[in-house]
Amino acid sequence: KVHFFLFFFPPQVLLLACAEDLECVPGFQQKVLYLEHPFEFTEDQPVLNLEFDDCKGNNKLNFEVSNPDFKVERDGSLVALKNISEAGRALFVHARSEHAEDMAEILIVGANEKHGALKEIFKTEASLGIPRQKRAILATPILIPENQRPPFPRSVGKVISSERAEGAKFRLSGKGVDQDPKGIFRINEISGDVSVTRTLDREAIANYELEVEVTDVSGKTIDGPVRLDISVIDQNDNRPMFKEGPYVGHVMEGSPTGTTVMRMTAFDADDSSTDNALLRYNILKQTPTKPSPNMFYIDPEKGDVVTVVSPVLLDRETMETPKYELVIEAKDMGGLDVGLTGTATATILIDDKNDHPPEFTKKEFQATVKEGVTGVIVNLTVGDRDDPATGAWRAVYTIINGNPGQSFEIHTNPQTNEGMLSVVKPLDYEISAFHTLLIKVENEDPLIPDIAYGPSSTATVQITVEDVNEGPVFHPNPMTVTKQENIPIGSVVLTVNATDPDTLQHQTIRYSVFKDPAGWLEINPTNGTIGTTAVLDRESPYVQDNKYTALFLAIDSGNPPATGTGTLHITLEDVNDNVPSLYPTLAKVCDDAKDLRVVVLGASDKDLHPNTDPFKFELNKQSGPEKLWRITKLNNTHAQVILLQNLKKANYNIPISVTDSGKPPLTNNTELKLQVCSCKKSKMDCSATDALHISMTLILLSLFSLFCKSFP
């Protein structure tokens, strides 16, 4: 080897040539370069020339610069992309060609370092803290076919280093070496041979990015790491697969030739950039084969299924079945015979359009119904050749004549498509014994433009009404009358009137009581006069909101007899027939009470105003030499009882009268029981008063007995 150093001093540039072999070594010819930092890097002005040689013509040579403000031209010129005043202390340039790759460092130094000796420059480099690294490792990309068969391991490539020291070793790392999946690749520490230890699957992992280093005997890195790319070459080992099924397409009957029905798309796990995943489509089978064995065509590249028959043949009503099944094949390798295949079934449904109007099965229908009855009387049948699952088949019926009173309605039976004609308002034989309806039928969906509804889409329904014995009818119903309560027994309340709607029959009517909750009424069976059998009481629980309700029957003489029901509401006017009641009737007070207001009394009356309040409260005559209490009115319905002095423990009866405002007024004489109790520590004890009351009663009885014996 011949070692020499070259110093070039063009403006702003100092180049240091590295030692190199006389033979061609792939990579940068100068791996470390020094660049004097100018006042400013000028846009598009070359500042440095880099020399890269892969020893094989530099095919597909590409440069990458660590600083995005710079680029390297094809001829190796380093150029600033814009005016830059500060570019940092170092730039890294990565070069890659078809056969080699390498890294170069450009160290940017100040002007005072320009003329120093080589030794001083190295000192400056160290003082700047910039590590000087060699990039002597050449790791060209490795391509490995998938699915290789044993034996393993097998050599797949080689890493070389142009400046390996004695005892230096290669070390390989990354996913597939010391990271999961581990142990797939390994490197010969001495020779740099890279080998694979097992079969690879491109569909599992297509690329491996490893790193190669050169280490000394102790394992310390002295060069690298350098990236080593391993790519797995695809083989045609995956069949096309249809993953998106089931595949169902729809096309309207009568569609033009070339109408797209659906798209079939298969997936091939092989490399999409190769013919291994280049798919072509074909129809293998069509079921059924009528009216044509070739109803559809599939675009071999896109997978679009289109119609190829004329619209006349695409007629749903003339087909054997509106459903077709196609067996679709997808073949890789661009459809060549060597390609792998996958199949799927596509179902194509011929959708119906409304090209057939519904038609009645006959022009006239007959129906018979009894008067007074509602419900379905006849089902109208129609035929329609369209698809029963669509609005092109479902019928909609309309009564277009003969229904002025809206006595009839027609609805569609969703299962049979029949028209269910119903009576919704009871018919009267005496008014009309016959009815004629004109009915039309249409589809839910409109007909296509060139089809119209014809005469068969209308029909006549003849309805005969049968006479039945109808019950008499009360006029009015309900009947209302107002009476005073307490009217004399036997008073006439009302004479009812009922008529027989069967005017063509001469029948008699008799009356009876049907429901009389209080048992107050009776009715003359011949003339319908209602009278009282008891006193009418407005305060009775059978009266609600001053109204008493009873039901009566009118029965004709038909065979069998028919019955009508009439309702009578009697509004009862109030009479002052209830004395007021007093509450409460018991009061308690402490014998040492300071507040002598014993109790507030209230009065109520079952009658209505003005036979109720204002009430008059009074004390009846008090026994004894002095008055013990008095009563004071608080308002129209309440008064207060007040003690005039504290009383001894005992029971006292206070005579009170309360009078209402009726005309004439009614008075209730009653007593308020007052208990005077002993009270200690907020507790009231009334037991002594009861005992005293009993004792006083026994004494009075004894005295009365003695008095009676003294006067036989």
UniProtKB/TrEMBL annotation:
Gene3D superfamilies: Cadherins (2.60.40.60). SUPFAM superfamilies: Cadherin-like. It is a lipid-anchor; GPI-anchor. Residues 1-19 form the signal peptide. GO terms for biological process: adherens junction organization; calcium-dependent cell-cell adhesion via plasma membrane cell adhesion molecules; cell migration; cell morphogenesis; cell-cell adhesion mediated by cadherin; cell-cell junction assembly; homophilic cell adhesion via plasma membrane adhesion molecules. Keywords: Calcium, Cell adhesion, Cell membrane, Cleavage on pair of basic residues, Cytoplasm, Glycoprotein, GPI-anchor, Lipoprotein, Membrane, Metal-binding, Repeat, Signal. GO terms for molecular function: beta-catenin binding; cadherin binding; calcium ion binding. It is found in: Cell membrane; Cytoplasm. Residues 144-242, 243-360, 361-474, 475-582, 581-692 form the Cadherin domain. GO terms for cellular component: adherens junction; catenin complex; cell surface; cytoplasm; side of membrane. The keyword Glycoprotein applies. It comes from the Eukaryota. By contrast to classical cadherins, homodimerization in trans is not mediated by cadherin EC1 domain strand-swapping, but instead through a homophilic adhesive interface which joins two elongated EC1-EC2 domains through a region near their Ca2+-binding sites to form a tetrahedral, X-like shape. Cadherins are calcium-dependent cell adhesion proteins. They preferentially interact with themselves in a homophilic manner in connecting cells; cadherins may thus contribute to the sorting of heterogeneous cell types. May act as a negative regulator of neural cell growth. This is Cadherin-13. The gene is Cdh13.
